[in-house]
Specification:
Helix content: 55-70%
Number of strands: 0
Structural class: mainly alpha
Radius of gyration: 30 Å
Largest sheet: none
Number of helices: 5
Strand content: under 5%
């Protein structure tokens, strides 16, 4: 008994070539009508940190550096206000100086908190999860709101805070932070 010769590179004998659905050109919008991925397929995750996340991370480090400069200025201001309160005579009204000291202490605490959060979130951008992205967005919003209270001086902080929000809100940033980490 002999078998007919098998050709692995062509259609089986007895069938028309190209039988079945006609071949179509690939769609420029993707395989699914809407441009998105086909339902049921695994989404593709980035292997390296996207540029937007790198930029937001660098901006948060810059904000922390600017905060340290502001911290130094605030501590020097607190020292001079304390010296002025100490050198004043007992008959002078020092309540304004005490209020100034209280405001400066509040500002110093606020600067330390914002600096610590900026550095912590920026360091976690490389390996953090979705909470790091949300924390960076909340940091950007809080930074923008606080800097708007000191508008002429806080203009740089306002712009950088808005950039952190914009970069962390992008889809590529979301894909980076929801990627599987083994």
């Amino acid at each position: 008994m002999s078998y007919p010769p098998q050709n692995p590179y062509g259609p089986p004998p007895g069938q028309q070539p190209g039988y079945g659905y006609p071949q179509q050109q690939p769609s420029p919008y993707g395989p699914y009508p809407g441009g998105g991925p086909v339902p049921g397929m695994q989404p593709q995750y980035p292997a390296v940190m996207p540029g937007g996340v790198k930029a937001a991370r660098a901006i948060m480090f810059v904000l922390a550096g600017l905060n340290v400069i502001g911290l130094i200025i605030a501590v020097m201001g607190l020292g001079s206000v304390s010296k002025a309160a100490h050198n004043s005579s007992p008959m002078d009204d020092t309540s304004a100086l005490n209020v100034g000291k209280g405001v400066l202490i509040f500002v110093i605490v606020l600067i330390v908190i914002f600096s610590a959060v900026a550095i912590t979130v920026a360091l976690q951008c490389g390996n953090g999860g979705k909470g790091v992205r949300i924390g960076a967005i909340v940091f950007g919003i809080a930074n923008t709101l606080v800097s708007l209270m000191t508008f002429p001086f806080g203009l740089v902080h306002t712009v950088l805070g808005i950039l952190v929000i914009a970069f962390m809100s992008k889809d590529e940033s979301n894909r980076w932070f929801v990627r599987p980490r083994y």
